[in-house]
From TrEMBL:
It holds the Pfam family NNMT_PNMT_TEMT. One of its GO terms (molecular function) is phenylethanolamine N-methyltransferase activity. This is Phenylethanolamine N-methyltransferase. One of its GO terms (cellular component) is cytosol. It comes from Cyclopterus lumpus (Lumpsucker). One of its GO terms (biological process) is methylation. Belongs to the class I-like SAM-binding methyltransferase superfamily. NNMT/PNMT/TEMT family. The gene is LOC117748978. The keyword Transferase applies. Keywords: Methyltransferase, S-adenosyl-L-methionine, Transferase.
Amino acid sequence: VGGRPESPLVGPETENGVAAMAACYQGFDPAAYLQYNYTPPRADFERKDSIVPWKLACLHRAFTEGDVNGDLLVDIGSGPTLYQVLSGCEVFKKVLLTDFLEVNRQELRGWLQDKGVSSLDWTPYLQHVCKLEGRRPSAWTEKAAKLRQVITDIVPVDVHRPQPLALDDLPSAGADCLVSCFCLESVSPDLAAFTRALGHIGRLLRPGGHLLLIGALGESYYFGGPGVKIPVVPLNEAQVCASLKESGYTLIRLEVYTLPQDMRVGVDDVSGVFFAKAIKE
Ligand SMILES: C[S@@+](CC[C@H](N)C(=O)[O-])C[C@H]1O[C@@H](n2cnc3c(N)ncnc32)[C@H](O)[C@@H]1O
Ligand SMILES: O=S(=O)(c1ccc2c(c1)CN[C@@H](CF)C2)N1CCSCC1
């Protein structure tokens, strides 16, 4: 994983762009990334206009409105975060986490295997999702146990490969649902590569399966650690919709959140966040 794409359709220019992106990620710092994006002011559960309640509510609704079901949920480009599967872990028997970097896979294993070892305390996220589910916040320990029970593995992934996962990491029937947050636009050298990557992960999904895609709007860079500036494909809503359509999905719903000024904290130049629920044709 992480090698050059195999597709004969991809020219040297794109291969060079993909390789350059992979090089940018060698300095990625999970603890710093979590600090930049998953602590206040961005992760402030007391603020009504905070992005956290909005995102967790989008995911909760998408997983629980009745059309998403099956056995296997795969999270593409998990990074060092878990918020993206806190609702899905109640709906799927198996959850597969994936990331390109061993440092991120190690961060996730630290949380899963040992109650104390992780760079961020996910308790407020667990408690918030319990509240969305109508449970008492103290049920967060049960949700943490559920998460540790359903996450079957944490494996390498490369969305620029036509087959992003190792064949033996995925059942032949494919995944029933994919979730992917802030990954494709943050790892692609350009819009064409973003769209191709959407098609590649679509091949992991059974026909009729759902994609829950969260991403940045208008973002051209972010810091993945101190001094680790990573380029991002700046997207607008129309491009997201067009790329989904071009790569074989039917859009069910697109929701957009505009970041308040005080959440623009210098770790990136994101202007908004989109949430797309789509179905693979
Ligand atoms: C901006 S982070 C998103 C992390 C997390 N999903 C979140 O919501 O914050 C982008 C992630 O993509 C991963 N990544 C980098 N290159 C990749 C590739 N070629 N294929 C899949 N994931 C990749 C990085 O290791 C990183 O964890
Ligand atoms: O939407 S966030 O503010 C957020 C969370 C992660 C990221 C960005 C924004 C923008 N840059 C991305 C680079 F890929 C990563 N957010 C942080 C608090 S919890 C919910 C998600």
